[in-house]
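Trying the structure run again after the queue cleared.
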Amino acid sequence: MSEIATYLHGKTLLITGTTGFLAKGLIEKILRYAPEIERMYLLIRTKRQRDGTILTAADRLDNEILPSSAFARLRETHGDRFMTVMHEKIHALTGDLTLDHLGFEPDLYERLMREVQIVVTCAASVTFDEEIDAALQLNTLGVRRILEFAKACDDTILIHVSTAYVSGQRKGRAPEVPPTPDRSMAQEIGRSRTPF
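Done. Tokens:
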């Protein structure tokens, strides 16, 4: 068993951004290489269809996440039991990072604070010309809400995943070094024309 699988053994996770490409791959890898997790909660927003019908978190799990090609190996491994095995480990929760308490009812929020040991947030707006208010709600305030949740939990670690603008236009290795507080990002990557 790998160190990661050993660490994840018996743990309960909360993952956001789960309908996105990156999170689907993460979910599959965890289920394949660390099947002894206790459970995985996926925070999933409801989605309004063009015909006005609403897809619930459970609908989106079954129709958008699990059918993904990311789960091909697990489908092959589990065959006809694939959906049963997935539902034993994965629990879809209707939530929204733009809402207080992640859009959860108070009882559920409190229960999750006691149960969850690992929070992985992959959620972000990937509309790169998003209206500033919408981008701020999800990409900044949503992260703050997740951080507040993780801090309120009994004993939880938070992993924040970001897929865009991480290294600007750098080429090659991009070591993770904390930025200097009094320098702009343009200065940090060597593209500033001004000293501040």
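The two ends are 50 Å apart (CA to CA). Worth checking whether this holds up in the mutant runs.
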